[in-house]
Specification:
This protein is of the alpha/beta class. The chain is built from ten helices and 15 strands.
């Protein structure tokens, strides 16, 4: 830290990196030290896009880890590199702003969680739906008991955009729910405040663009007794859609529409406009809010409640859905 500002660096300069960069440049408590990537051309694209001056270009990840000016590292590389790079950063004494997913399999995830704990590393995950104003409103209502006992939680992640490169490979992306649907799986768990205990998955292979099923569905059981139905589609002619439907004994949430017993005169759903854009564009996601929260945590010398550990159950549920679908749809416990 210099002059009260945290030194920040970014590794990986693909699409999502733009959301991280915009957040760093907007935050007055951050000083962008530099950026780097395995592909030099992507670094130059980000420098031009953000009109960056007087920053360091890091040719290798090790250069970031060895730079004493860097306090916080954003990892925005392909999914299969996240866990190993995060562990390297933790061992180097850096704090982590880690893009989802934290890992592409349970073994990597457990190793990462153990290393972060051993190194006393503070982290925050790029699970953006947790920070949307609408999600925070939904969380408050559920936590206050306005919905009563939760009976059913359904989530959908549908986004039929073109994806190339490593995202077409199941080994590197982790599968449909890991690549994209993890946002919605994590949101359901976050809102209910209850772990997912068992899942049963199914999947559909759609053409040969992806070497894994681009459509996955799941039945879900929560520790609090609630049931769930989840769906994820990376294919089809559909814009970004992230549904969250929750039915409780005293109320129901349908995205931004609410029906609550506490309003006795209510005859139908009412809508609340929280200003959330229904967009899959990373520049519309609340990265500035995530970073601001993380900076507050670092100043208070505490880990974030949105750290890697907080998302372990969500990740393991996604892994289990994939395994269940591949194994014929048996129920699998989320360990």
């Amino acid at each position: 830290m210099k002059n009260g500002k945290f030194g920040c660096a970014l590794w990986g300069c693909g699409w999502v990196a733009g959301g991280h960069l915009a957040a760093y440049l907007k935050n007055p408590d951050c000083r962008l030290i530099g950026i780097g990537s395995r592909r030099p051309e992507s670094v130059q694209q980000k420098i031009a896009e953000f009109d960056l001056h007087e920053i360091t270009v890091f040719p290798a990840f090790e250069d970031i880890l060895n730079d004493p000016r860097v306090d916080i590292v954003s990892i925005c590389t392909p999914n299969d590199l996240h866990a190993e790079e995060a562990m390297q950063a933790a061992r180097a004494g850096k704090q982590l702003f880690l893009e989802k997913p934290a890992a592409v399999n349970a073994e990597e995830l457990e190793r990462l969680a153990a290393v972060l704990q051993a190194c006393y590393t503070k982290s925050v995950m790029g699970l953006v739906l947790r920070f949307n104003p609408l999600s925070l409103l939904q969380k408050r209502l559920i936590a206050r008991g306005e919905l009563g006992k939760i009976l059913l939680a359904n989530v959908d992640y549908w986004f039929g955009r073109d994806r190339g490169g490593w995202m077409r490979e199941g080994k590197r992306s982790g599968g449909a729910f890991v690549l994209g649907g993890c946002h919605s799986v994590d949101l359901a768990r976050f809102l209910l405040g209850s772990d997912i205990t068992e899942v049963r998955g199914d999947a559909l292979q759609t053409g040969d663009w992806y070497d894994y099923p681009a459509v996955e569905t799941a039945q879900v059981r929560f520790a609090n007794g609630a049931k769930g139905v989840f769906s994820c589609s990376l294919a089809g002619f559909v814009p970004y859609t992230a549904n969250i439907h929750i039915i409780g004994e005293d109320g129901t949430i349908l995205n931004d529409r609410f029906f609550l017993r506490c309003f006795q005169e209510q005859k139908d759903f009412f809508a609340v406009n929280t200003g959330v854009k229904k967009s899959g564009d990373v520049y519309d996601h609340p990265f500035p809010a995530i970073l601001s929260h993380f900076i507050t945590c670092l100043r208070e010398d505490r880990d974030s409640e949105h750290n890697v550990a907080s998302a372990v159950n969500s990740h393991k549920a996604c892994f289990a859905i994939c395994r269940s679908a591949a194994g014929g749809g048996e129920w699998i416990k989320v360990g």
